[in-house]
Every structure is written in C-alpha cells, then in structure tokens.
Amino acid sequence: MDYAIEVEKLRKEFKSYSSRSGLMGAFRDLFTRNYKIIRAVDDISFTVKQGEMVGYIGENGAGKSTTIKMLTGILTPTSGKVVVNGMNPHKEREAFVRTIGVVFGQRSQLWWDIAVQESFRLLKKVYRVSDRDYKEHMEHVIETLDIGPLLDKPVRKLSLGQRMRCELAAALIHNPPLLFLDEPTIGLDVLVKLKIRQFLKEINEKYKTTILLTTHDISDIEALCERVIMLDEGKIIYDGSLQRLKENWGEGKQIQFTFAKEVVDEELRVLTNDLKIDWRKGEQANSWIAHVPPVYVSDVISRVVARYDIQDINIHEISTEEIIRNIYEEGVAHG
To answer: Which PANTHER family match (predicted)?
Structure first.
C-alpha cells in the first residue's frame, strides 16, 4: 500500500437552520424549521503517499477541519470514498484508531487533573503498546520535546506551549504511521514552534511518518511541507508543490513608493503600461505599491524617479503569505 490517504469525490453537507422572528415565528419553528443545506466539503479528491508531509490550508470555514474530521472517523461523509491506512475510518473504528495520531490545537487528549505520565500510561494501555516499544520510542520523544520535567505535573498546571508538546507526545505513544495535526502551533511562542517543527522533521525522517498539517501559520508549512493542498469554500483550488506555487505566483518584488505629493493611479499606469505591472494604493498617505516582475525592477524605479518627487522607496520580496492571499482573492490557482 503506497497511499496513506485516498479521498475520492468526498462531500459533507450540513443543515443550517434559521429562526423566524417574533413570537409567532418562534411558535411556527416548533413545528417546521427553515433550513438550507451547506456543503462544507464539495466533492474533493486527493491522495497522500506514505511518508509525505502535506500542508492542508485554507481560510476559516474553507472546510479544512471538516475534512480532517472525516479522515479521522469523527464525522461520516455525506458521499464519496475515504480510505486511510488501507481502512475505512468509520467501519473499522477500533483497528483504525491504532494507526493514526491526532493533535487538535483546540482540544486535549490528556486528562486534566492527573499527571502527564499517568495520561501516557493510560494511553499506552489503550493502544496496547508493549513496555519495550514504549521505552524505546518514548524516551526519544520525551527528550526531543523536552517534556521530562513536566511528566509529574497535572495538565491543568501546564502553560499552552508545555501542554501542546505533551499533546504531541501523547499522539505518538503508539508510533502511528500517520499523524493529523490541526493548528498544532496556534498561540505558541517562536522557540516552542521551532522545537515542534524540528521534532516533526525528525520523526518523519526516522519513521517515515506521514503528516497532514492544517495551519494558519504559513511558516509552519514552509518549514515542513513540500506540498500544499489549498481549499476554498469546500473545493480544492491548488494541489502541488510549495516551490511551484511560489514560482507561478510569487515571481517578482513589491516596490513601495512614497511620493512627495498626491499621485493619480491612472498616471502611474500610463507610465508603466508597456510593462506587466500591477499598481495598488499603499496604506500610508501618497504611497503606491508596484507588483513588479524581477526584470523590470530597475526600469520601473528609474521611470518613476525621473517623473516624480519621491520621499522614500522600499523593495520587498513577496512572502508566501501574500502569494496565498492573492490566490484567494482571485479564487483560482494555476497548476
């Protein structure tokens, strides 16, 4: 089996109920409810090979969490096919959960009032992990994530960063071949993020652990994933390499000009209309930003400087975050 995840025409629909206003409306709602069908995930198909680390990204409400919940067996799809680790997540529940690890940034799998190591001990029993396997694998995990000093503390006494490191360790007690991470670094400080990223790289190299990562933090994706799947309104709008995404969309630089006086955008467009340039208003007064292919940078600067009084010029590389924002604004990605 080469694929860790196979998804074909996967769909999830929810009923969204609306309430009628007033007393009469409330009375009528008791008997009939108005609802509309919302398609959170809209016939998506993709595969993830064993050992891949894939970033699954999208804005809030794009359908990321709904997909993860179907892949982990929490939600049943409305239609379509899901095969994860060679199994149907819903039908072979007990065998299936032993083959995955899940970390939801917003939800805990550790028991709140008992020491972390007691939670680990319980999970070890649940997953039927032998003493030898536990010792061999978890010593490395505990050391790398630097959670040794936290093991005898109850979870409620831990900071968010400490808890997330323990959550990650808990998800790996049975050394699953596939790890789902849903916003694993949300709210964490930079050093903890770096530690978690480093650790994920290590387990991927050491055990060929497949990782599907959803995050708002694009630097997580840049540090870990060569491939991204991008979701918008329940549909996949891009599936391919991060590198290609940057090459197709991130070519060029942004030059910010701050003019001494007000300038009309029409004049700027006329000045550069033979070059492929996109002008937009900057946030500061009298500032304009030109999105410029690399070959035209010096040309644009010399034309603008020759024509106008300039107070300041800044040149920026285009960040992955901006590339992704541009794609969402246009609503389509070229493969």
So the answer is: ABC TRANSPORTER ATP-BINDING PROTEIN, ABC-TRANSPORT PROTEIN, ATP-BINDING COMPONENT
Largest CA distance in the chain: 76
Q: For 296, which DSSP code?
A: G
List the chain pLDDT tens, one digit each, 335 residues. Answer: 589 999 999 999 998 888 888 888 888 888 888 888 999 999 999 999 999 999 998 887 888 889 999 999 999 999 999 999 999 998 888 899 999 999 987 778 899 999 999 999 999 999 999 999 999 989 989 998 899 999 999 999 999 889 989 999 999 999 999 999 988 887 788 888 888 899 999 999 999 999 999 987 788 888 999 999 999 889 998 999 988 877 766 667 788 999 998 888 888 888 888 877 888 888 888 898 888 876 778 888 989 999 899 889 988 776 777 777 777 776 554 44
Query: Which of these, 217, 226, 126, 108, lies nearest to 176 by C-alpha position?
Result: 126
Give the CATH superfamily of 3-99+176-247.
P-loop containing nucleotide triphosphate hydrolases (3.40.50.300)
Residue 178 near residue 97, CB atoms below 8 Å: no
3-state SS class at 186: coil
Residue 188's H or E segment, with its range, is none
> Any alpha helices (H) in the chain, and if so which ranges?
22-31, 64-71, 93-97, 116-126, 131-144, 160-171, 190-207, 218-224, 242-249, 265-271, 297-307, 320-330
Give the integer Cα–Cα distance in Å for 202 and 162.
19
**Residue whose C-alpha is closest to residue 243's, from 171, 313, 323, 327:** 323
181 forms beta bridges with 103, 213
Distance CA 293, CA 305 (A): 18
- Say if residues 224 and 200 touch (Cβ distance below 8 Å): yes
Q: Where along the chain do its domains lie?
A: 3-99+176-247, 251-317
DSSP string computed for 69-134: HHHTTSS--SEEEEEETTB-TTTTHHHHHTTEEEEETT---S-TTSBHHHHHHHHHHHTT--HHHH
Closest to 333 measured CA to CA, from 232, 261, 218, 226? 232
